[in-house]
Structure prediction request, 344 residues.
Amino acid sequence: MRSSGENTERDKNPPPPGPVAGPAADAAVAVPVASLLPGDSPRLAGVEPDHVRLLAALPDLPPVLVHRRTMRVVDGMHRLHAARLRGATTLPATFFDGDEKEAFLRAVERNLTGGLPLSLHDREAAAVRILATYRQWSDRAVAAAAGLSPTTVGAIRRRFFVPAGGGNGDGGDGGRVGRDGRVRPLDASAGRLRASRWIARHPDAPLRAIARAAGISVGTAHDVRERLRAGRDPLPPRPALPDPRSSGPPRTRTTTGTRAEGWRAVRDGLARDPSIRYAESGRAFLAWADDHVLEPGDLDELADAVPPHWRAAVAEVARSCAAAWLEFARELEQRARTQPGSPD
Prediction:
């Protein structure tokens, strides 16, 4: 059951699409080549002549995807140029009936999953456009749509959309729409305070009722109730984040709510370090860590994706991974004590 606030956010910012960004007809029909117009391609460099000549040599061209209302090619500009090169008068096509924003999403999706791959610059530029249109989509949702890592999308959001005076870069109240369509706040403080007030009025309420009333997860509701029972503040303390301008290693341990920000600060310094930047193993570590550090709001979305009959098994795997991370931390700390200093 969704709160009215969540429904309002869904109306303003529709949930990210699944594998298909909108309806398209299954059957291909022959359309006149002269009737097809250039589309809004995610390729910054435009059409590549060598790929056009390669396609022109094929006996049959796969159908292009066409925006029905405008007759613009959503996916298949190289095929359109190949058809023109060999003098074809018609080209097989399927039609897309979504709006122009959805058409761009479909164009990116098609170019990520088939044909000539999009370059990194193409995907980053696509992420900028998607963020500009769907500011409240989560980094993970935009990453899935643009073929990037969530950390890269987060960096793009901070660079282009976070105002100089601060903020979350989402143009709203700080909530983000995940890939499952659920709105989750980046800062759970307001939800925790709502939960504490609800518990004060309904001390015997079940956790799920508290979570629904406050717009938070059941786990957060449980934590708030336990804190209140112990006479503690419903808001956990926020550890200081490492100063990215500092040359020394971070000295604070982060909690679930701040670990992603801590990683971003550390990652910026690592990425500039020549011993990381110019070493294959260093670049591989950054790529690996990008996929293993969780962002705020990820836990709920990831937990919701696990079917009930698999939760216990996945919990054991998560606990094992946590133990491996802890051992990794101990190893780094041991090396820091025995091999102090940093490279010039």
